[in-house]
């Protein structure tokens, strides 16, 4: 016990001494000795030493000294210098990224830091969330395209790799991502351990520079056994989804059933990614058209055409929000103030291409707003149809919104101010000349959460401009956020 404590005290003293020698000593030789000693200690797992080295990196100008800690290769994951390659956005991060941006780095030094960074990825076999994303960011900053591609390519073939950690930091390097897609196309067998994971990553993260080649280059040229693998993978996902959905519906059916109510279940039949991929085989045109007048009116307003099927269901079963309110018995005051359109009066489900209108809530809210049920139903129908058209309506090239990207507008927050502004704005333009509807819409607007009320600032903008921005967002030319939308227009 005693000797342990002594050791601790001793090393604390030693560390303070080294700290002073490294940070406050004009003698270069002394500083060099101190940094060597501290590097050794950090590599053996001493956290304090790593922090002192980090302080030094920030203020030291002499390149011979500040490069020292990177010259010793790490040998275990215990090495505290791993925090130098951590992602800079992490709390208490010791990331060297901000320091690298400030420093003038020679090619020799680059080589040393690259080797150091790669070693950590190798040590954790590319699956540690603390190390891999940050290390990849550093590499993508320091190395050239070929070196970066070769390194990534190597790891994409290994069992242990976490694909998301490796690829996500490369979102700003479309040239690398494109090379990866083409490599998958040319030699899928080489990536067989990770093929589905990589493929799925590209569909979950649709980028303007990759989505098209995923469909046209990779999918259309893929050997049929790989196509089958992909189909099987997404069919399994949809079956899991159906079971969940079925279970949910049955549970509510047995609990909330009213006399005479019939159980109606709509099931998605195909995973949207698969639908999208197979669209390429048919020249990107899909199934039948079911015209709903609200859908058609919105489509015509914004100049898009609807080719895909959108289902619409009216249900008397309570919406999710009502269920939650009932469960908490909070129906009366606080929550009762708002009448949010989505999830309470109606809802659009992009994965199922389905509009659902919650008639019980529409009836109750019509009473509260002193409007007719039919009028309120119609307003909600327009709003949800607008979401469907933004998603599925096709432009002059026959293209619509990739479902993954559609869900990620405004970074995926719910409700998304941009989605709600577009839906409300389109609703407004469809009904502005119908006095009953516009009156109801204005009344309803007073009970909406903020995200649903921004549309008023854009009513004077020609719809053709809104359409152009929407097309730009779908193509990835314009950032899919409300802030950007507002900046462009106001
Ligand atoms: Zn909405």
> What is the CA–CA distance across the termini?
70 Å
Order of helices and strands: HHHHHHHHHHHHHHHHEHEEHHHHHHH
What is the count of β-strands? Answer: 3
| Structural class based on helices, strands and sheet pairing | mainly alpha
Strand order of the largest sheet: 1-3-2
Label the overall shape.
elongated
Domain count: 2
Task: Kindly describe this structure.
- This protein is mainly alpha-helical and 490 residues long.
- The protein folds into two domains: 2-207, Leucine-rich Repeat Variant (Alpha Horseshoe); 287-489, no CATH class.
- It is 59% helix and 3% strand.
- It has 24 helices and three strands.
- The protein has helices at 2-23, 28-43, 47-59, 63-66, 68-71, 97-102, 107-123, 132-142, 145-156, 163-167, 174-186, 195-204, 211-221, 224-256, 272-281, 293-302, 320-328, 359-369, 373-392, 403-407, 417-431, 435-445, 463-474, 482-489, and strands spanning 311-315, 346-349, 354-358.
- Strands 1-3-2 form a three-stranded mixed sheet.
- β2 (346-349) and β3 (354-358) form a beta hairpin.
- α1 crosses α2 (28-43), α9 (145-156) crosses α11 and α19 crosses α21 (417-431).
- The longest helix has 33 residues, at 224-256.
- The chain starts with a helix and ends with a helix.
- The structure holds zinc ion.
- Zinc ion is lined by residues 341-342, 383, 387, 420, 423.
């Amino acid at each position: 016990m005693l000797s342990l404590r002594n050791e601790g005290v001793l090393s604390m003293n030693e560390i303070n001494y080294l700290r002073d020698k490294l940070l406050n000593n004009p003698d270069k030789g002394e500083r060099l000795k101190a940094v060597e000693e501290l590097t050794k200690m950090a590599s053996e797992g001493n956290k304090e030493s790593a922090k002192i080295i980090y302080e030094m990196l920030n203020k030291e100008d002499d390149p011979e000294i500040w490069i020292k800690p990177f010259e010793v290769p790490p040998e275990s994951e215990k090495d505290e210098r791993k925090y130098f390659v951590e992602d800079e956005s992490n709390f208490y991060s010791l990331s060297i990224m901000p320091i690298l941006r400030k420093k003038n780095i020679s090619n020799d030094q680059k080589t040393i830091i690259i080797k150091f960074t790669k070693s950590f990825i190798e040590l954790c076999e590319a699956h540690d969330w603390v190390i891999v994303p940050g290390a990849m960011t550093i590499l993508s900053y320091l190395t050239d395209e070929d070196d970066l591609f070769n390194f990534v390519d190597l790891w994409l073939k290994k069992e242990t790799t976490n694909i998301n950690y490796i690829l996500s930091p490369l979102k700003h390097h479309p040239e690398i991502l494109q090379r990866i897609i083409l490599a998958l196309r040319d030699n899928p067998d080489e990536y067989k351990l990770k093929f589905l994971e990589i493929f799925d990553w590209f569909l979950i993260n649709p980028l303007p520079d990759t989505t098209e080649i995923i469909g046209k280059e990779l999918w259309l040229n893929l050997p049929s056994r790989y196509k089958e693998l992909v189909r099987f993978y997404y069919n399994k996902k949809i079956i899991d989804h159906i079971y969940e959905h079925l279970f949910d519906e049955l549970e509510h059916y047995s609990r909330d059933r009213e006399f005479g109510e019939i159980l109606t279940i709509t099931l998605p039949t195909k995973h949207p990614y698969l639908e999208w991929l197979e669209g390429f085989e048919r020249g990107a045109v899909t199934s039948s058209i079911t015209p709903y007048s609200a859908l058609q009116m919105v489509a015509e307003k914004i100049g898009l055409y609807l080719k895909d099927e959108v289902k619409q269901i009216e249900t008397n079963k309570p919406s999710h929000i009502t269920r939650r309110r009932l469960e908490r018995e909070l129906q009366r005051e606080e929550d009762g103030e708002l009448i949010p359109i989505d999830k309470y009066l109606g809802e659009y489900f992009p994965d199922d291409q389905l509009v659902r209108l919650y008639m019980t809530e529409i009836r109750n809210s019509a009473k509260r707003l002193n409007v007719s049920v039919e009028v309120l139903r119609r307003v909600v129908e327009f709003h949800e149809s607008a979401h469907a058209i933004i998603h599925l309506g096709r432009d002059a090239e026959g293209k619509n919104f990739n479902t993954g990207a559609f869900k990620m507008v405004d970074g995926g927050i719910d409700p998304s101010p941009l989605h709600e502004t577009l839906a409300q704005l389109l609703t407004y333009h469809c009904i502005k000349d119908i006095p009953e509807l516009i009156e109801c819409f204005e009344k309803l607007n007073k009970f909406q959460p903020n995200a649903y009320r921004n549309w008023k600032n854009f009513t004077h903008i020609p719809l053709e401009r809104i359409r152009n921005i929407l097309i730009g967002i779908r193509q990835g030319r314009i950032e899919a956020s409300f802030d950007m939308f507002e900046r462009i227009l106001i």
